[in-house]
Design brief:
Length: 140
């Protein structure tokens, strides 16, 4: 699915659609720096019942945890600063990815070999005053 977003006001509707249409709980976000990955994750979290003011990029912490509706957890990762996949092993990535809770992953290319076989890929491209979202469901 390809979606063109012309203003930030359109993001809540896209977040709602993704939560309702796709069953994947692991979502990998691809895009250049400042493409809008964290901003969109805020809207996904809001759709799942998290106060968006609590959502920020876990660049230094690597993972932030948010409590969503229905005792669901959301794990928000930013792997930008890791040097290699061993750091993800050290933090116990598999306990998160296979927990059946939501995992939103920024910079998944840094841990490409560790990603689950079933996930949702969201590519965000920035062009002029718009964002192009390409959403791809991966199932084994």
């Amino acid at each position: 699915m390809r979606v063109i977003i012309n203003s930030i006001e359109e993001l809540p509707a896209l977040a709602s659609k993704i939560v309702k249409v796709y069953s994947n709980r692991v979502i990998a976000f691809y895009g250049d720096m400042s493409a809008g990955k964290t901003t969109f994750i805020k809207y996904l979290c809001q759709e799942l019942g998290v106060d968006p003011s609590f959502v920020n990029s876990p660049t230094y912490a690597i993972v932030n945890e948010y409590e969503a509706r229905g005792n669901q957890m959301i794990f928000h990762f930013d792997f930008y600063r890791i040097k290699d996949e061993n750091e993800a092993y050290d933090m116990g990535y598999e306990n998160y990815f296979y927990s059946n809770h939501y995992c939103f992953i920024e910079w998944p290319e840094k841990i490409a070999n560790l990603l689950p076989e079933n996930l949702l890929r969201i590519h965000i491209e920035s062009e002029a005053n718009m964002r192009i979202f390409t959403i791809e469901e991966i199932k084994s």
